[in-house]
Amino acid sequence: MKSRILFVLLLVVSIWACDSKTSSKQETEQTVYKDVPEFNADSAFYYIQRQVDFGPRVPMTSSHEQTKEWIVSKFREFGLEVQTQEFQARTYDGLIWDLTNIIASYNPTAQKRIMISAHWDTRRIADKDTQRIDEPIDGANDGGSGVGVALELARILSTSELKADVGVDFILFDGEDDGEPEHANRRDNSQIWWCLGSQYWSKSPHQSGYKAYYGILLDMVGGKGARFYREGHSMYFARNIVNKVWNYGIELGYSDYFILKDAGEITDDHYFVNKNAGIPMIDIIEFSPEIGFGRYHHTHDDNMELIDRRTLKAVGHTVLFTIFQE
Protein backbone atom coordinates (compact mmCIF):
# COMPACT_ATOMS: atom_id res chain seq x y z
CA MET A 1 0.00 0.00 0.00
CA LYS A 2 2.77 2.42 1.00
CA SER A 3 4.69 1.64 -2.18
CA ARG A 4 1.55 2.35 -4.26
CA ILE A 5 1.08 5.72 -2.52
CA LEU A 6 4.75 6.52 -3.06
CA PHE A 7 4.43 5.67 -6.75
CA VAL A 8 1.42 7.96 -7.14
CA LEU A 9 3.25 10.81 -5.38
CA LEU A 10 6.27 10.37 -7.62
CA LEU A 11 4.00 10.36 -10.66
CA VAL A 12 2.29 13.61 -9.56
CA VAL A 13 5.65 15.28 -8.91
CA SER A 14 6.91 14.10 -12.29
CA ILE A 15 3.84 15.48 -14.09
CA TRP A 16 4.13 18.78 -12.19
CA ALA A 17 7.80 19.05 -13.13
CA CYS A 18 7.02 18.40 -16.80
CA ASP A 19 4.23 20.97 -16.74
CA SER A 20 6.55 23.49 -15.11
CA LYS A 21 9.20 22.90 -17.76
CA THR A 22 6.60 23.20 -20.53
CA SER A 23 5.22 26.41 -19.01
CA SER A 24 8.71 27.82 -18.60
CA LYS A 25 9.56 26.89 -22.19
CA GLN A 26 6.38 28.54 -23.49
CA GLU A 27 7.21 31.72 -21.58
CA THR A 28 10.71 31.85 -23.07
CA GLU A 29 9.31 31.18 -26.56
CA GLN A 30 6.91 34.13 -26.47
CA THR A 31 7.35 36.41 -29.46
CA VAL A 32 9.49 39.46 -28.82
CA TYR A 33 8.42 42.30 -31.10
CA LYS A 34 10.72 45.00 -32.38
CA ASP A 35 10.20 48.54 -31.11
CA VAL A 36 8.07 50.73 -33.34
CA PRO A 37 7.86 54.54 -33.62
CA GLU A 38 4.60 56.27 -32.82
CA PHE A 39 2.14 56.82 -35.65
CA ASN A 40 0.84 60.41 -35.57
CA ALA A 41 -2.84 60.43 -36.60
CA ASP A 42 -2.95 64.25 -36.43
CA SER A 43 -0.23 64.39 -39.07
CA ALA A 44 -2.07 61.93 -41.33
CA PHE A 45 -5.26 63.95 -40.87
CA TYR A 46 -3.41 67.11 -41.93
CA TYR A 47 -2.15 65.42 -45.10
CA ILE A 48 -5.72 64.46 -46.00
CA GLN A 49 -6.93 68.01 -45.38
CA ARG A 50 -4.20 69.40 -47.64
CA GLN A 51 -5.31 67.14 -50.48
CA VAL A 52 -8.96 68.13 -50.08
CA ASP A 53 -7.99 71.80 -50.01
CA PHE A 54 -6.66 71.51 -53.56
CA GLY A 55 -10.15 70.54 -54.72
CA PRO A 56 -11.31 67.28 -56.34
CA ARG A 57 -8.26 65.51 -57.77
CA VAL A 58 -9.90 64.62 -61.07
CA PRO A 59 -7.37 63.83 -63.83
CA MET A 60 -6.74 66.58 -66.36
CA THR A 61 -7.62 69.37 -63.90
CA SER A 62 -5.46 71.98 -62.17
CA SER A 63 -6.37 70.48 -58.75
CA HIS A 64 -5.03 67.13 -59.90
CA GLU A 65 -1.77 68.67 -61.14
CA GLN A 66 -1.26 70.73 -57.97
CA THR A 67 -1.87 67.68 -55.78
CA LYS A 68 0.67 65.66 -57.76
CA GLU A 69 3.34 68.33 -57.31
CA TRP A 70 2.58 68.55 -53.59
CA ILE A 71 2.76 64.77 -53.01
CA VAL A 72 6.05 64.51 -54.91
CA SER A 73 7.47 67.44 -52.93
CA LYS A 74 6.47 65.85 -49.60
CA PHE A 75 8.14 62.54 -50.41
CA ARG A 76 11.28 64.40 -51.47
CA GLU A 77 11.14 66.51 -48.32
CA PHE A 78 11.22 63.25 -46.35
CA GLY A 79 14.37 62.22 -48.21
CA LEU A 80 12.86 59.43 -50.31
CA GLU A 81 13.89 58.70 -53.89
CA VAL A 82 10.97 59.78 -56.07
CA GLN A 83 10.03 59.10 -59.64
CA THR A 84 6.86 59.48 -61.65
CA GLN A 85 5.42 57.13 -64.22
CA GLU A 86 3.47 59.06 -66.83
CA PHE A 87 1.12 57.32 -69.23
CA GLN A 88 -2.12 57.72 -71.11
CA ALA A 89 -5.33 55.73 -70.69
CA ARG A 90 -8.72 55.75 -72.35
CA THR A 91 -11.80 56.26 -70.18
CA TYR A 92 -15.18 54.52 -70.44
CA ASP A 93 -16.59 57.49 -72.38
CA GLY A 94 -13.75 57.77 -74.88
CA LEU A 95 -11.56 60.41 -73.29
CA ILE A 96 -7.77 60.13 -73.36
CA TRP A 97 -6.36 61.00 -69.96
CA ASP A 98 -2.78 61.94 -69.07
CA LEU A 99 -2.12 60.08 -65.82
CA THR A 100 0.77 59.76 -63.38
CA ASN A 101 1.71 57.03 -60.93
CA ILE A 102 3.95 58.30 -58.12
CA ILE A 103 6.71 56.06 -56.74
CA ALA A 104 8.76 56.96 -53.65
CA SER A 105 11.36 54.60 -52.18
CA TYR A 106 12.69 54.38 -48.64
CA ASN A 107 15.97 52.47 -48.16
CA PRO A 108 16.20 51.79 -51.91
CA THR A 109 19.21 49.45 -51.66
CA ALA A 110 17.50 46.95 -49.34
CA GLN A 111 16.88 43.56 -50.94
CA LYS A 112 13.68 42.82 -49.02
CA ARG A 113 10.99 45.31 -50.00
CA ILE A 114 7.44 46.05 -48.90
CA MET A 115 5.03 47.86 -51.21
CA ILE A 116 2.52 50.36 -49.73
CA SER A 117 -0.09 51.68 -52.15
CA ALA A 118 -3.12 53.93 -52.41
CA HIS A 119 -4.78 55.92 -55.18
CA TRP A 120 -4.45 59.68 -55.26
CA ASP A 121 -7.17 60.68 -57.75
CA THR A 122 -10.88 61.30 -57.04
CA ARG A 123 -14.11 60.51 -58.83
CA ARG A 124 -15.44 63.03 -61.35
CA ILE A 125 -19.11 62.32 -60.56
CA ALA A 126 -21.18 61.67 -57.41
CA ASP A 127 -23.32 59.01 -59.05
CA LYS A 128 -24.52 57.47 -55.77
CA ASP A 129 -25.77 60.82 -54.47
CA THR A 130 -29.23 62.31 -54.83
CA GLN A 131 -28.04 65.80 -55.74
CA ARG A 132 -25.14 67.39 -57.65
CA ILE A 133 -24.68 64.01 -59.24
CA ASP A 134 -22.56 65.31 -62.12
CA GLU A 135 -20.12 67.16 -59.84
CA PRO A 136 -16.80 65.66 -58.60
CA ILE A 137 -16.42 64.58 -54.97
CA ASP A 138 -13.87 65.62 -52.35
CA GLY A 139 -12.65 62.06 -51.88
CA ALA A 140 -11.43 62.69 -48.34
CA ASN A 141 -11.71 59.00 -47.51
CA ASP A 142 -11.82 57.43 -50.97
CA GLY A 143 -8.32 58.34 -52.04
CA GLY A 144 -7.27 60.99 -49.55
CA SER A 145 -7.07 58.77 -46.46
CA GLY A 146 -4.81 56.17 -48.06
CA VAL A 147 -2.41 58.85 -49.29
CA GLY A 148 -2.49 60.58 -45.91
CA VAL A 149 -1.51 57.40 -44.08
CA ALA A 150 1.17 56.61 -46.69
CA LEU A 151 2.73 60.06 -46.34
CA GLU A 152 2.81 59.78 -42.56
CA LEU A 153 4.44 56.35 -42.82
CA ALA A 154 7.06 57.84 -45.15
CA ARG A 155 7.72 60.71 -42.76
CA ILE A 156 8.17 58.37 -39.80
CA LEU A 157 10.44 55.95 -41.66
CA SER A 158 12.73 58.76 -42.76
CA THR A 159 12.88 60.75 -39.51
CA SER A 160 12.64 58.22 -36.68
CA GLU A 161 15.75 57.10 -34.80
CA LEU A 162 14.30 53.59 -35.02
CA LYS A 163 15.01 52.16 -38.46
CA ALA A 164 13.16 49.45 -40.32
CA ASP A 165 15.22 46.54 -41.66
CA VAL A 166 13.41 46.52 -45.02
CA GLY A 167 12.97 48.82 -47.96
CA VAL A 168 9.55 50.34 -48.58
CA ASP A 169 8.18 51.49 -51.92
CA PHE A 170 5.21 53.84 -51.79
CA ILE A 171 3.39 53.44 -55.12
CA LEU A 172 0.42 55.77 -55.52
CA PHE A 173 -1.83 54.95 -58.44
CA ASP A 174 -3.66 57.44 -60.61
CA GLY A 175 -6.96 56.99 -62.43
CA GLU A 176 -8.38 54.48 -59.95
CA ASP A 177 -11.70 56.15 -59.24
CA ASP A 178 -13.20 56.34 -62.70
CA GLY A 179 -15.54 53.85 -64.34
CA GLU A 180 -19.06 54.07 -65.67
CA PRO A 181 -21.66 55.70 -63.40
CA GLU A 182 -24.16 53.68 -61.42
CA HIS A 183 -27.08 55.02 -63.48
CA ALA A 184 -25.53 54.34 -66.90
CA ASN A 185 -28.02 52.92 -69.41
CA ARG A 186 -25.34 50.97 -71.25
CA ARG A 187 -22.21 49.48 -69.75
CA ASP A 188 -19.12 48.82 -71.84
CA ASN A 189 -17.81 45.51 -70.51
CA SER A 190 -14.91 45.27 -72.96
CA GLN A 191 -12.51 46.05 -70.12
CA ILE A 192 -12.33 47.32 -66.55
CA TRP A 193 -12.55 51.10 -66.75
CA TRP A 194 -11.32 51.89 -63.26
CA CYS A 195 -7.97 51.11 -61.57
CA LEU A 196 -6.26 52.56 -64.65
CA GLY A 197 -2.99 53.30 -62.87
CA SER A 198 -2.57 49.86 -61.33
CA GLN A 199 -3.52 48.15 -64.58
CA TYR A 200 -0.75 50.07 -66.32
CA TRP A 201 1.89 49.70 -63.57
CA SER A 202 1.26 45.99 -63.02
CA LYS A 203 2.12 45.31 -66.68
CA SER A 204 4.86 47.95 -66.96
CA PRO A 205 6.42 48.47 -63.52
CA HIS A 206 8.62 51.50 -62.87
CA GLN A 207 11.64 49.19 -62.59
CA SER A 208 12.21 46.19 -64.83
CA GLY A 209 11.76 42.98 -62.88
CA TYR A 210 10.54 44.81 -59.79
CA LYS A 211 9.51 42.51 -56.95
CA ALA A 212 8.30 43.04 -53.42
CA TYR A 213 7.94 40.56 -50.58
CA TYR A 214 4.31 41.66 -50.33
CA GLY A 215 2.15 44.75 -50.65
CA ILE A 216 -0.56 46.52 -48.65
CA LEU A 217 -3.19 48.64 -50.39
CA LEU A 218 -4.82 51.40 -48.31
CA ASP A 219 -8.28 52.36 -49.58
CA MET A 220 -10.91 54.20 -47.53
CA VAL A 221 -8.99 53.81 -44.27
CA GLY A 222 -10.08 56.93 -42.38
CA GLY A 223 -13.87 56.86 -42.01
CA LYS A 224 -15.73 57.15 -38.70
CA GLY A 225 -16.77 53.76 -37.39
CA ALA A 226 -14.89 51.91 -40.15
CA ARG A 227 -14.67 48.14 -39.99
CA PHE A 228 -12.09 46.25 -42.03
CA TYR A 229 -13.06 42.74 -43.07
CA ARG A 230 -10.84 40.23 -44.87
CA GLU A 231 -11.37 41.00 -48.56
CA GLY A 232 -11.82 38.08 -50.97
CA HIS A 233 -8.99 38.58 -53.47
CA SER A 234 -6.62 39.33 -50.59
CA MET A 235 -7.51 36.02 -48.97
CA TYR A 236 -7.08 34.15 -52.26
CA PHE A 237 -3.71 35.63 -53.25
CA ALA A 238 -2.14 36.48 -49.87
CA ARG A 239 -4.03 34.80 -47.03
CA ASN A 240 -0.95 34.59 -44.80
CA ILE A 241 -0.31 38.35 -45.13
CA VAL A 242 -3.95 39.13 -44.31
CA ASN A 243 -3.80 36.93 -41.22
CA LYS A 244 -0.51 38.49 -40.11
CA VAL A 245 -1.72 42.07 -40.45
CA TRP A 246 -5.14 41.41 -38.89
CA ASN A 247 -3.57 39.55 -35.97
CA TYR A 248 -1.12 42.40 -35.40
CA GLY A 249 -3.99 44.89 -35.44
CA ILE A 250 -5.92 42.89 -32.88
CA GLU A 251 -2.83 42.45 -30.65
CA LEU A 252 -2.29 46.21 -30.75
CA GLY A 253 -5.82 46.77 -29.42
CA TYR A 254 -7.72 47.49 -32.62
CA SER A 255 -10.12 44.53 -32.63
CA ASP A 256 -13.03 46.93 -33.22
CA TYR A 257 -11.48 47.80 -36.59
CA PHE A 258 -9.86 44.57 -37.83
CA ILE A 259 -12.66 42.02 -38.02
CA LEU A 260 -11.90 38.31 -38.36
CA LYS A 261 -14.66 37.77 -40.89
CA ASP A 262 -14.49 37.43 -44.66
CA ALA A 263 -16.03 39.89 -47.10
CA GLY A 264 -16.55 39.56 -50.84
CA GLU A 265 -14.06 40.10 -53.62
CA ILE A 266 -13.42 43.70 -54.71
CA THR A 267 -11.75 44.61 -57.99
CA ASP A 268 -9.39 47.18 -56.53
CA ASP A 269 -5.78 48.12 -57.37
CA HIS A 270 -4.41 45.12 -55.45
CA TYR A 271 -6.17 42.69 -57.82
CA PHE A 272 -4.01 43.78 -60.77
CA VAL A 273 -0.82 43.83 -58.70
CA ASN A 274 -1.53 40.22 -57.72
CA LYS A 275 -2.73 39.05 -61.12
CA ASN A 276 -0.31 40.82 -63.46
CA ALA A 277 2.78 41.58 -61.36
CA GLY A 278 2.70 38.44 -59.23
CA ILE A 279 3.20 40.38 -56.00
CA PRO A 280 1.01 39.19 -53.11
CA MET A 281 -0.92 42.29 -52.08
CA ILE A 282 -3.75 42.71 -49.60
CA ASP A 283 -6.41 45.38 -49.43
CA ILE A 284 -7.29 47.19 -46.21
CA ILE A 285 -10.61 48.66 -47.27
CA GLU A 286 -13.89 49.57 -45.61
CA PHE A 287 -16.32 47.10 -47.16
CA SER A 288 -18.90 45.20 -45.17
CA PRO A 289 -20.18 41.74 -46.16
CA GLU A 290 -23.65 42.90 -45.08
CA ILE A 291 -23.99 46.38 -46.61
CA GLY A 292 -21.02 46.73 -48.97
CA PHE A 293 -19.42 50.16 -49.19
CA GLY A 294 -20.32 52.91 -46.72
CA ARG A 295 -23.18 55.26 -47.49
CA TYR A 296 -20.70 58.03 -48.29
CA HIS A 297 -19.20 56.04 -51.17
CA HIS A 298 -19.21 58.08 -54.41
CA THR A 299 -21.27 60.83 -52.78
CA HIS A 300 -20.54 64.34 -51.53
CA ASP A 301 -20.58 63.00 -47.97
CA ASP A 302 -17.04 61.78 -48.61
CA ASN A 303 -15.58 64.93 -47.05
CA MET A 304 -13.41 65.87 -44.08
CA GLU A 305 -16.31 65.50 -41.63
CA LEU A 306 -16.14 61.76 -42.31
CA ILE A 307 -12.47 61.41 -41.33
CA ASP A 308 -11.72 60.08 -37.84
CA ARG A 309 -8.25 60.22 -36.30
CA ARG A 310 -8.95 57.02 -34.34
CA THR A 311 -9.44 55.06 -37.56
CA LEU A 312 -6.29 56.56 -39.06
CA LYS A 313 -4.39 55.58 -35.90
CA ALA A 314 -5.66 51.99 -35.99
CA VAL A 315 -4.63 51.48 -39.61
CA GLY A 316 -1.43 53.50 -39.56
CA HIS A 317 -0.12 51.98 -36.33
CA THR A 318 -0.89 48.46 -37.55
CA VAL A 319 0.83 48.92 -40.91
CA LEU A 320 3.83 50.62 -39.30
CA PHE A 321 4.10 47.78 -36.78
CA THR A 322 3.94 45.24 -39.61
CA ILE A 323 6.76 46.94 -41.50
CA PHE A 324 9.02 47.04 -38.44
CA GLN A 325 8.54 43.34 -37.66
CA GLU A 326 10.02 42.30 -41.03
Automatic annotation (TrEMBL):
* Coiled-coil regions, chain positions: none
The source's domain of life comes to Bacteria
* InterPro entries, alphabetized: Peptidase_M28, QC/QCL
- Organism in which the protein naturally occurs: Belliella calami
Keyword Lipoprotein recorded: no
Per the database record, which ranges form the Peptidase M28 domain? 101-320
Q: Which UniProt keywords apply?
A: Acyltransferase, Signal, Transferase
Q: How far does the signal peptide extend, from start to end residue?
A: 1-17
Q: What is this protein called?
A: M28 family peptidase
Nuclease as a keyword of this entry, yes or no, is no
Q: Which Pfam families match?
A: Peptidase_M28
